[in-house]
Write a structure and sequence with these properties.
The complex is a heterotrimer of chains A (321), B (352) and C (613). Chain A has 321 residues and is mainly alpha-helical. Helix content of chain A is 78%, strand content 0%. Chain A has twelve helices and no strands. The longest helix of chain A has 40 residues. Classes of the chains: A mainly alpha (321), B alpha+beta (352), C alpha+beta (613). The interface between B and C is large, with 52 and 57 residues.
Chain lengths: 321, 352, 613
């Protein structure tokens, strides 16, 4: 019962949060001097009348607070409006969000599979040469500018023709068998995943290492050791569980970090994800599109944290109090 | 602490590299053979100058170089650079070149090295406008290496005070302040960054633009930092020495500034060194997208933008140098940051 | 011991770096220019001339017959489109080039332009007769929409009357055929004949007949079709529902990735063996974000054809002889790069001048503008920025335009002439800084859109060019949107570097730029509904030219007008033209029946292109 109450409380807390987010973003965007119709204005064959029609359609002739109220009331009803080029925002998001989720979940999965064991190893061999090397390697991964790394990998793809040059699927994707489709997706995902994996691995490994170290210093681990359990048992039976708990909180943050971090990578690899969409939308000041993708990003982020919190409560009874 | 850093061989190497980088950037006017705007339009994308120490007769000689001659072959649509052997240009130390203000104080025209005026010495080739990449790297480094620091100097006071007030007062103030901070945190940071950068007023001088980008970078990071500070303040504020200060009758602001915030200094130092690199990366990402530092100013990010073209990577690898410098600078900061963390916080108690 | 080891390692590294930097002076550093391919270069104009298809009647159907060699059927061509991909497939609501192009694949117009000469030739129409102000159009008999319904005069009436004249969707076509505020009349004579009557002779009208024809029965079958017009053929349309007339039809649209078109099995064009075209089974457009990604895709053989720019051309040219593609140099492109000067001398609502009065005096001074023109080094712009793949430009019509005034020869950079013009207006040089006759330092802002490496580099060079005259230029690349807002709305700019794509066939399309009330009259933009007549003398003449030029039907008569307009622009220099890029295209050699032209590019006859196995 307590858990349910807590979850409900958290969900209720999320609503004002999203409200503030929407206000902040809306006003930032609308205060900008950027003209959403710029591209049309510079097209010699577009007439004044067409421009006026567009202005009215986008509500650009109304004061900003009015525009916000209009936008917000529609948003609550689930109507995300249309883009500056006349497409439904919800359609565009529907295309992109699954792609972004696919990419980020693969990256998170990979980093956990590799990062957690490396973190444990780092803690087990604390202060040894091996630990030091791990730290250095993770530092190197963190230091490469993602877009630079992505560009180099693209060139690698062209030179070796091992991997396709950007995108998510091949042109003949629809004609492939199921196995072929999976393989095709995998081939396209290798490079972007490599970039994001390299960048985010370091943080996870460090965090896990720090958690392990902390837990291994704790009284009950000392007690377990004193009982004469083998070091292997101490680590995997007692320390690991407790060190993993705080990592769940990190899951939410990692998800958020990836959402941002993926934007540049998606841009270079021409990956049809949310990051590239928002980048293009910002450049054109496509208000509805920017707002919707910002809100989606924020909602995904908040949801990620929420799920992490809930998971934490379930796994770690201490928090409930 | 310095001694402890020097004990660690990776951290000491990193520190030395960073010191060299900052010194070179500081004395950029002197070290760079050209100013950041010096352009020879007949030398666009010229390869690095060849420096010879053994002359054509096989004898040792003072280092010298030849100019490049540019030819366009219309049939091949190709521009070719060949060595113009008609004149040797000896490389002079303390060469007389363009006039500049040394450290902004006195005027001089001496540069660390260079060739006489009609000669061209491009140790890392040129960019599309025929500007010396090496010189621009140094001037660009001024921006790329300082922008992160400057933002931190804005961000940390804001974060400290915000977190301090929120944590100390608690209650409704805390609730409201934290909701706002959380809202800012809930916007994916890079998205917020590009939106803010995209709305920068356009008619700005490069200094104004630089300042505003610093401010924007600071706006992204303060909320997370403030939250951690608040958490720390919450735990500190019930310690005895704070209660003691309260009973003496010290003002709240004084308590926050004098008694509580200093307790967070370890965390601040660690967080600072560890966040400088992320700001360097953020700046380069912004400039790469064309939203950061703009031409004709140089930053490592906007120089790298030119390098992303496939042809440039294949045939003009010298344009990639800013990427490696970003990498080395960030790596060095990370290594030092790790070591400082180990020193100040050996048990890894402080978390971000 | 350890220290010694470090010392050795460090000296080792230093020696390594030095040996990398320092060289022995031998002849091996002299690059030899290899030119084995030089003599085999194909020069433009290409020796192949594209033969126009003819009409042949077989069993009551008026087919269009391709006159090109007969090829084999099957295969696919993969090409690319830069940007975000099509936003709609509706040819009447499309506002961007990509959407129009994709919609154009599926819907033919009554006429089309000859790819070589630009003449108007029949497409869906069998013939066009011009009788005074009447355009009598006879349709082909027996040709069908994809669902088997015949294409008749009703469809033409529907398209023009109910869509274009009614102002649905993008009203650009409608606006461009308004003569004195009046629209042409349209009348159906019989099921296969339609007559358009224009109120006055109006030359640009004929080319507007390239507007695609819509299937009446399909459009009107959609409930409330007029109100939901924007949603007809929207990007989310189900491909199977589409009723089309073109050589290809939409098979699948994967947003941000690709658009797949498939062959129309019942198209009305046939080859010399009377087999139905097109040859290709599929045409795939990959959606690529930028030029760089496009090149990578071509290099990785993911796409079959590409437009090449700058130094990439050299790479592909050098490898052409051992590769599977051929490169065609099509000459100067329709694109123009220019420097616009703000002549605006009006005030905004707050009674503040858009441009500061000092600057106004300079910019409105023809001597000053001429000096600027003479100071710009176009040759260097071409060799450095366009890597030699451009042609210096002095006219407002593009170099491949059929109305180009060939008498305007232009000039080389000449600082002496520039200085003479400045001196004429009393500008003086003091300590290498230019002052006007009132003693004001000559300094202004130069804008362009940030992120465009080409334009940013031009800005850097122009800044230097003008510095030679003692002029201080503050070069400011700004966000594209912000720049456009300045140009079309707030007018607070001094000079800016821009590019526009002209129409090589119809100078009247430039009316928006040159007419004093045009929406793109950048250099002296007036707000919408501006009533006061403050036109400059030559602006009046330009207004007159664009009005009169459209009323003449004969090419030679029209050319006189448009020659004069180019002369005025050249003499007055409100816009200083810089260069036109050269259009260079590459296509894999397995594709046959490829006849690239400067006007239409490479894929205009996509239905005739086939793959040699």
């Amino acid at each position: 019962m307590n858990i349910l109450k807590y979850i409900l409380k958290r969900i209720v807390q999320v609503i004002p949060l999203l409200f503030i987010v929407s206000i902040i973003s809306f006003f930032i965007i609308r205060l900008s001097p950027i003209d959403p119709l710029a591209e049309l204005r510079l097209n010699p064959s577009i007439s004044q009348e067409t421009l006026q029609k567009e202005t009215q359609r986008l509500g650009l002739d109304k004061p900003i607070p009015v525009q916000y109220v209009k936008w917000a009331s529609a948003f609550v009803k689930g109507d995300l409006g249309i883009t500056s080029s006349g497409e439904k925002v919800s359609d565009k998001l529907k295309e992109r969000i699954p792609n972004t989720l696919l990419l980020t979940s693969i990256v998170i999965f990979m980093t956990w599979i590799v990062g957690i064991p490396l973190g444990i190893l780092g803690a087990m061999f604390h202060k040894s040469q091996f630990d030091r090397l791990l730290t250095i390697f993770s530092s190197i991964g963190m230091a490469i500018p993602s877009f630079f790394f992505a560009i180099l990998l693209l060139i690698f793809a062209v030179k070796t023709s091992l991997f396709p040059v950007g995108g998510l699927t091949s042109f003949d994707f629809d004609e492939m068998s199921l196995g072929g489709k999976v393989l095709d997706l995998a081939r396209h995902l290798v490079l972007p995943v490599t970039v994001l994996f390299t960048i985010s691995l370091a943080g996870l490994q460090r965090q896990m290492r720090a958690n392990m170290l902390e837990v291994m210093e704790s009284d009950y681990v000392k007690f377990a050791r004193a009982k004469g359990l083998s070091e292997f048992k101490v680590i995997f039976k007692h320390a690991l569980r407790n060190a993993l708990n705080p990592m769940i909180t990190l899951l939410g943050f990692e998800f958020a970090g990836l959402l941002s971090g993926a934007a540049l990578t998606e841009y270079v690899f021409q990956y049809p994800g949310l990051g590239r969409l928002i980048l293009e939308a910002v450049m054109k000041s496509d208000i509805n599109l920017v707002m919707a993708s910002l809100m989606m990003g924020s909602i995904m982020l908040v949801l990620g944290n929420l799920i992490a919190d809930i998971l934490l409560i379930i796994t770690d009874p201490r928090i409930r109090n | 602490m310095f001694k402890q850093i020097m004990k660690d061989k990776y951290a000491s190497a990193a520190l030395i590299i960073l010191v060299i980088m900052y010194l070179m950037v500081l004395f950029a006017d002197f070290i760079a053979p050209y100013s950041k705007d010096f352009a020879d339009r007949n030398q666009s994308y010229a390869p690095p100058s060849k420096v010879f120490v053994i002359d054509e007769n096989g004898r040792f000689s003072r280092p010298y170089t030849y100019n490049y001659k540019r030819e366009y072959i219309p049939e091949l649509y190709q521009t070719v650079y060949t060595l113009d052997r008609s004149q040797k240009y000896y490389i002079n130390l303390f060469n007389r070149g363009e006039e500049y203000k040394f450290l902004g104080v006195f005027k001089t025209s001496r540069h660390l090295f260079g060739v006489e005026n009609s000669g061209r010495l491009y140790i890392l080739g040129t960019d599309i406008n025929g500007r010396d990449v090496f010189s621009r790297l140094l001037f660009g480094g001024r921006i790329s290496l300082t922008i992160g620091f400057l933002s931190l100097f804005i961000l940390f006071p804001i974060g400290l005070i915000y977190g301090g007030i929120s944590g100390y007062f608690g209650g409704v103030v805390d609730m409201l302040m934290m909701r706002f901070a959380e809202a800012v945190m809930a916007i994916p940071s890079f998205y917020l960054l590009i939106i803010l950068a995209a709305i920068l007023p356009s008619n700005m001088t490069s200094t104004q633009r630089f300042t505003l980008i610093v401010v924007i970078l600071a706006l992204i990071g303060w909320s997370g930092f403030a939250r951690v500070v608040r958490g720390m303040v919450l735990s500190i504020k019930n310690e005895e020495f704070v209660l003691a200060a309260k009973t003496i009758g010290a003002s709240r602001l004084r308590i926050i500034l004098k008694h509580i915030l200093p307790q967070t200094s370890s965390y601040v130092i660690i967080a600072m060194t560890l966040s400088v690199p992320s700001y360097i990366l953020a700046e380069s990402g912004l400039s790469f997208l064309g939203l950061g530092i703009q031409q004709p100013d140089a930053s490592w990010g906007n120089m790298l933008k030119e390098a992303q073209e496939y042809i440039n990577i294949l045939y003009r690898p010298w344009l990639l140098t800013p990427g490696f410098l970003i990498f080395i600078a960030v790596l060095s900061f990370n290594l030092i940051g790790d070591t400082i963390r180990d020193i100040l916080d050996p048990k890894g108690q402080i978390r971000e | 011991m350890k220290k010694a080891l470090y010392f050795i390692i460090i000296t080792g590294i230093v020696i390594l770096i030095l040996s990398f930097c320092l060289h022995k002076d031998t002849s091996s550093y002299d690059t030899e220019i290899k030119c084995n391919a030089c003599d085999t270069v194909e020069k433009y104009p290409l020796n192949k001339i594209f033969p126009n298809p003819k009409t042949v009647t077989i069993k009551g159907t008026d087919y269009l017959q391709s006159q090109l060699p007969v090829g084999e059927f099957g295969g696919r061509l993969i090409t690319s489109t830069i940007g975000e991909g099509p936003k709609t497939f509706n040819p009447f609501t499309a506002k961007d080039a990509t959407s129009s192009q994709m919609a154009g694949m599926m819907y033919d117009g009554l006429v089309t332009s000859n790819p070589v000469t630009g003449e108007v030739t029949p497409k869906l129409a069998d013939s066009i007769k011009i009788d005074g102000n009447n355009y009598i159009i006879k349709l082909r008999h027996g040709i069908k929409w994809s669902d088997g319904k015949p294409i008749t005069a009703d469809d033409v009436m529907f398209t023009w009357k109910d869509i274009v004249f009614a102002g649905l969707g993008n009203t650009s076509v409608r606006d461009s055929i308004l003569v004195d505020g009046k629209l042409p009349q349209i009348k159906k004579l019989d099921n296969y004949t339609v007559v358009f009557t224009v109120p006055k002779p109006f030359a640009p009208f004929l080319r507007q007949l390239t507007t695609p024809i819509a299937p009446k029965h399909w459009f009107t079958s959609i409930p409330d079709w007029e109100k939901s017009f924007d949603r007809i053929l929207a990007s989310t349309v189900k491909p199977d529902d589409i009723v089309y007339s073109g050589a290809f039809h939409l098979k699948k649209y994967v947003p941000a990735q690709r658009v797949i078109f498939e062959r129309n099995p019942d198209y009305y064009e046939i080859n010399l063996k009377n087999q139905k075209l097109p040859y290709l089974n599929q045409v795939v457009y990959l959606i690529v974000g930028d030029l760089n990604n496009e090149i990578l895709k071509f290099e990785a053989k993911e796409i079959d054809t590409i437009g090449l720019r700058g130094s990439t051309v050299a790479r592909y040219k050098a490898k052409e002889s051992q590769s599977d593609y051929a490169i065609y140099n099509l000459g100067a492109d329709t694109g123009t790069m220019f420097l616009a000067i703000n002549l605006n001398n009006r005030k905004n609502e707050k009674n503040k001048p858009y441009v500061s009065p000092n600057k106004q005096k300079w910019f409105s001074d023809i001597n000053f503008r001429t000096a600027i023109d003479y100071a710009i080094d176009r040759e260097s712009l071409v060799t450095n920025i366009a890597q030699g793949l451009a042609v210096p430009l002095f006219t407002s019509e593009s170099l491949n335009g059929i109305y180009l005034n060939k008498n305007i020869k232009g000039h080389k950079r000449d600082l002496n002439i520039a200085r003479k013009y400045l001196a004429k207006s009393g500008f003086r040089l003091k300590n290498n800084i230019l002052y006007d006759k009132y003693g004001n330092k000559v300094e202004f802002d130069l804008y362009t859109n940030a992120g465009n490496t080409e334009r940013e580099s031009i800005g850097v060079m122009i800044k230097q060019d003008l510095a030679d005259l003692g002029i201080t230029v503050n070069f400011k690349p700004i966000e594209f949107n912000t720049l456009v807002n300045k140009l079309t709305n707030s007018y607070d700019w001094d000079m800016s570097i821009m590019g526009l794509t002209g129409s090589p066939l119809e100078p009247h399309n430039g009316k928006n730029v040159w007419a004093s009330n045009g929406t793109l009259h950048l250099f002296n933009q007036r707000p919408v509904g501006y009533q006061i007549d403050d036109r400059l003398v030559w602006e009046k003449e330009l207004d007159n030219i664009f009005e009169q030029g459209a009323l003449k039907l004969n090419f030679a008569d029209r050319k006189k007008y448009y020659d004069r307009y180019q002369e005025i622009v050249y003499n007055q220099r409100p816009i200083v033209y810089l260069y036109s890029p050269t259009r260079i295209v590459a296509i894999r050699r397995k594709f046959k029946n490829v006849y690239p032209t400067t006007l239409s590019g490479i894929l205009y006859n996509i239905e005739e292109i086939w793959i040699e196995k």
